[in-house]
Amino acid sequence: MSIGNGPAREWRVTGMDCGACAAKVRGAVERLPGVGNVDVALMAERLRLTLDVSRTSPESVEKAVRGIGFGIAPEGAPPERPRKGFVMPEGAAPGASAPPAAEAVPRQDAPPAAAPRRPWYRNPKGRLVIAAGLLLAAAWAAQLVLPADIAHQAFVPATLIGLFPVARRALATARAGMPFTIEMLMTIATLGALVIGAPEEAALVVFLFAVGELLEGLSAGKARDGIRALRDLVPGTALLEVGRHTRQVAADSLAPGQVVQVRPGDRVPCDGEVIEGISGVDESPVTGESLPALKEPGAQVFAGSINAEALLRVRVTKTAADNTISRIVRLVAEAESARAPTERFIDRFSRFYMPAVVGAALLVALVPPLTLGLAWGEWGYRALALLLIGCPCALVISVPASIASALSTGARSGLLIKGGRVIEAAAGVTHVAFDKTGTLTQGRPRVTDVVALGGSEADVMAVAAGVESGASHPLGLAIRAEAGRRGLSAAPVTGARALPGRGAEALLGGVPVCVGSPRLAEARAALTGEIRSRVAGLEAEGKTVVVVLRAHEPLGLIALRDAPRADAGEAVAQLRALGVASIMLTGDNARTARAIAQGLGIDHRAGLLPEDKVAAIRDLRSGARVMMVGDGINDAPALATAHVGVAMGSGTDVALETADAAILRDRVADAAGMLRLARGTMANIRQNIAIALGLKAAFLVTTVLGLTGLWIAILADTGATVLVTLNALRLLRFRPCAAAGRPAAGAPASPEA
């Protein structure tokens, strides 16, 4: 493949409904000079590549894709119909009708209106199945009224009419440099059957192949429905406040700062902040959380959630293109590009597998007649059947179909996983490392004690609030909140800066002031024996203590407590039930860490700076597969070091954009759900591979022995493909975040249920 040096370009490709389709598109453009980094996403219908326009133009890329029968349109343009007679129309879902060529259709990462549906029998693949079936039935009926020789030939037109679109695609892909496709094998086998005098079986093979393609398309459409459903969560309109009145506007036109009204029963049209009203909001469509969340002024709401009780006034905080739903859709679409190692191996394997099958078929056709004097017709027939059995469609689709279903299921359950690579890595996790603050604990510490050592409590709080005035760390926020509750103004400091893992410092009237851990104060020789004793007593109560220094002299102590999350103990227990060990990594002091860890039944390491957490993860990695769960901000280095990094956060930018995966709802127990989903997906993939290879191996033996013929051979191919896809779709019913042993009503506890 030529390596493209230009910028990345993107197109929407329509008409893809199986792994083989994506492989054809990839193969058609990889051969062009100046093209590199080709990425074809089947479910997202996306082609992305880098292109050296001095060697190949974008129009040449589009011509190559159209040449093998698919529709292609540049990023942001209306989708294009695939060429008639090659593949089905736009959307690749047999139930979806194609829009007119001039009709503008939103891109897949925007929330478009649902595509109009029409029955399967009104699209080209459905019509081909009906036509081939009617011709086949007519040929069988002719056997009842016509002489045997004439009736036998009635199957020839049934075969040729049904084979025409298949042969057309075979020639197109062969011209594009891809001769080893299922269409080419079908064409050779069917024409060969006519030559050796088996038109009835040839007609039946063509009909079964058409049925198989129709079912593949239906399955692909079903697999895409999860992402379509996410896009459709956002309502099309919103009630925008304009002065004292409201008017209905398009939801995608809302801008940050505007105020909308959300009536009871309405879906929230934007990500925003409640400024008036108190109501329960059903966030299950977005986060998977089954219980309504109480929203009051200051609370955040997600686009797509449902207001259940009372009128809310909401200030828009994000544009439609950047709201939680849009980012989830983009993330899931992008995740398809992060292919699992198993999928990459199968892709490489299939490139050598098909030529090997063709070679084996030639040997079956030639060796027995030439060496043993056996009948040419009989062994030619067996070779043709072997060609059909050998197509790797079911094997190629076995992994991406399961991954696509798992990504959709995860998104519905508040679990965002960035691709098959992450799923495969998560399935092998043996240890989970948790950050403490904001992960195992609520991340909302409160000040419990203020000890003045030099001045008043008010002085201690004012100085501390001034130093923490720009802080985003939970401890800093808690100190500022306590100062506000006491009616104190923050001291006017300058030059405030953070000391990662240790505290913060600034200047107050030219004098250095600092708020930091006892370890920092110890390093600055600011602690006496009496102060150490007070610190130890507070830490023994499970509190976090910070020391306020002025000119390197202790001004006071502030103790804070952050309660564990309600489900933290459940998370540790669920992981233990999965055979996964847990450990807490924290920069907090050893006494506080021990108190929390003992309450949760988890191992711990305390007093860790960010670089110490990275070292701890590296230690664990040496003999285990490690998942790190953190808040996605302070723990970024550790998240990147672990085999799988998981960010906590209810739809925050960092939680969605960093790490390998994100937990949307504030439930640390969902970490166990992510592992259950990953393990269930890999089990499903293994089942699919066993189905694909097992059926082919069984029918390969029976075909060579002459026990089965052409129509069984095509069932071994298309039947295996449909079985694999249907098995993968079972993952859509999987409920990964139901507690172990207690599946959601009406849903299996695991994909093997």
- Radius of gyration over all CA atoms, rounded: 32 Å
- Main β-sheet description: 7 strands, mixed
Q: Tell the overall outline.
A: elongated
| Strand residues, percent | 15-25%
What is the structural class? alpha+beta
Q: What is the assigned CATH homologous superfamily of the domain at 404-441 and 564-679?
A: HAD superfamily/HAD-like
CATH class of the domain at 404-441 and 564-679: Alpha Beta
Low-confidence segments, ≥5 residues, pLDDT <50? 84-116, 740-753
Question: How would you describe what is shown here?
Answer:
The chain has 753 residues and is an alpha+beta fold. It is 47% helix and 17% strand. Among the domains are: 8-115, Alpha-Beta Plaits (2-Layer Sandwich); 237-322, Calcium-transporting ATPase, cytoplasmic transduction domain A (Distorted Sandwich), CATH 2.70.150; 404-441 and 564-679, Rossmann fold, CATH 3.40.50; 446-561, 3-Layer(aba) Sandwich (Calcium-transporting ATPase, cytoplasmic domain N). The strands form five sheets. A seven-stranded mixed β-sheet has the order 14-26-25-24-15-22-23, sandwiched between helices. A hairpin with a 4-residue loop joins strand 2 (35-41) and strand 3 (46-51). The longest helix is centred in the last third of the chain and has 35 residues, at 670-704. It is elongated, with a radius of gyration of 32 Å.
